[in-house]
Design a protein that fits this description.
By secondary structure, this protein is of the alpha/beta class. 33% of the residues lie in helices and 18% in strands. It is elongated.
């Protein structure tokens, strides 16, 4: 019995030889008259990103209707659903890929009922052999029967790493730029270039999920930039990269400089390089604080390598707006750093930035970001009390207050950068600062002082007479050690960790004209 299969990838290994004819990839222009059974067997490419899945599904369904118009109604037209996703999304709450697969299945069922003689078969239960995919475009491996087993549960690292430092030659592309030249490096096209293109595609998704990408390469800077800007098969582009160290210097020093430029701890970075000697140098230089995982020996192993990276360092439960804007924010930070070098004093530099701040009570929009801030902020964090969103909501329900501080300047929007939690006693006459913190990306420009003074003025206006606060020293929050005394708080214990401030004894706190407090509508 002759079967004809409409397909968009290599599916021949799943059919007996000699009994089946196949369409061209994505071709729905013909339906052989001598075929007795037709089968619709389209598959999402295993490297499909969540954001493109729905468009692919819509295209598949449109092609299905075109194919069905050519298949005689009296002949069976078997429909194969899409395979269930086997890869966890970078952001676990992102259901777009699963939703697209479910939508497609529902549409096939609907089509089956409307047409008749179009049974829906079982969805494929095979895994991906990436070597087979890169070499032959076979989306599943007959040797990897899954037998309906669920995909492994993803691991969510706590805390999530903030940045990924990437080598270029042999890591982002095949070959050596200095030897093979612009046209000779392997990126895109056939294997192994398509494996490096897949890796870059996943890195872009990583950047879009809030992880900062940096480049550290022993190369000529102009040559590397030309590849990022002009190579037609590059997926990573300059706008995805927040810091560059392309020179002939020690890579450990480059990683140290990148951490300083991004204003993050080196231990929040991951270093990826195909050269084992470079990885060992970075591991030794930072005492293992900078992760430097082994790079795969073969490019076809890059998909599994990326998933291992995601599980160990980068997967997240949810994505906030600030996460999605991280790459832009760090690029803006680099521009600020360059701009600052043109000024003789810090005060002149800060005054030139046009800093706009918005102090506001927490709301449904800001609470997820504020909870995230408490989980991630280490350097400027007075008490280092970690909170979940549910805990913050409970704190508010008890009659307390939570405030957010958003910031923007001439270089761009920093988003929500500050969080404060205030509890009240004595009928509102006394207030206690339970938490006060500032994202590291806003430090160095006096924003934390403007935030604290504005908050104290607000409490004073509300009738608060006395404010207490704690400083809980940690290995990372030394920048906070003298912050409370700088605001006029007096030590209330011998250890210097408890402080108090009498608001009755003083007037309003002065805030520098370098900071403009605005409404939400004005901030942009």
């Amino acid at each position: 019995m002759k079967r004809f299969v409409f397909r968009n990838a290599t599916v021949e290994p799943f059919f007996p030889r000699g009994e089946t004819e196949f369409s061209g990839y994505g071709d729905v222009s013909r339906a052989p008259a001598d075929a007795e059974i037709f089968r619709w067997f389209y598959a999402l490419p295993p490297d499909a990103e969540p954001g493109e899945a729905r468009a692919l599904v819509a295209d598949f369904l449109q092609r299905l209707r075109l194919a069905a118009a050519r298949v005689p109604a009296e002949k069976p037209f078997e429909l194969v659903p899409l395979a269930a996703p086997r890869r966890a999304p970078l952001v676990l709450s992102d259901s777009r890929l699963r939703d697209a697969v479910a939508f497609y299945a529902a549409e096939l069922e609907k089509f089956s009922r409307e047409r008749g003689n179009a049974p829906v078969l079982a969805a494929p239960e095979f895994g991906v052999d990436w070597r087979l995919w890169f070499l032959t475009k076979t989306p599943f491996s007959p040797a990897k029967k899954l037998a309906g087993t669920p995909p492994p549960a993803p691991r969510v690292p706590v805390p999530r790493k903030k940045g990924l430092v990437l080598d270029c030659d042999g890591t982002l592309w095949g070959g050596t730029l200095g030897e093979d030249g612009f046209a000779g490096i392997k990126i895109g096209g056939d294997y192994p270039g398509n494996a490096f293109a897949h890796f870059q595609k996943r890195l872009v998704a990583l950047a879009e999920s809030g992880v900062v990408l940096a480049v550290s390469s022993k190369n000529n800077y102009a040559d590397v930039r030309e590849v990022f800007e002009r190579h037609p098969d590059m997926i990573l582009r300059p706008e995805h990269v927040s810091a560059w160290r392309v020179n002939w210097n020690d890579k450990a020093e480059s990683v140290r400089e990148i951490a300083a430029e991004l204003n993050v701890g080196a231990d929040s970075l991951v270093f990826v390089d195909d050269d084992a000697r470079e990885r060992e140098r970075v591991l030794q230089a930072f005492g293992g604080a900078v992760a430097a995982p082994a790079y795969p020996a073969q490019p076809y192993a890059l998909p599994e390598f990326f998933e291992t990276l995601a599980d160990a360092f980068f997967r997240a439960e949810t994505l906030t707006r600030e996460d999605a804007e991280k790459t832009r924010q760090y690029r803006d930070a680099a521009a600020r750093a360059e701009f600052s070098r043109t000024f003789a004093s810090l005060a002149d530099y800060v005054a030139s930035l046009g800093i706009r701040l918005r102090l506001a009570p927490a709301d449904d929009f800001s609470l997820p970001r504020l909870a995230q801030l408490t989980q991630k902020t280490n350097q400027f964090n007075l008490a280092t009390r970690r909170r979940t969103e549910a805990e913050l909501r409970g704190f508010l329900k008890r009659g307390n207050a939570v405030f957010s501080l958003a910031a923007a300047d001439r270089f761009g929007d920093l988003g929500i950068v500050g969080e404060a939690e205030i509890s009240f006693a004595d009928a509102g006459k006394s207030a206690r600062v339970e938490n006060f913190m500032m994202s590291c990306r806003a430090l160095g420009r006096g924003v934390e002082t403007a935030f604290a003074r504005a908050l104290l003025n607000l409490l004073r206006e509300r009738g608060v007479e006395a404010v207490s606060a704690d400083f809980a020293p940690t290995a990372k929050n030394a920048p906070c050690a003298k912050f409370l005394p700088s605001l006029g708080f007096a030590a209330a214990d011998a250890a210097g960790t408890r402080f108090a401030l009498d608001l009755r004894a003083r007037g309003a706190f002065e805030i520098s004209s370098a900071y403009e407090f605005v409404s939400d509508e004005q901030r942009h």
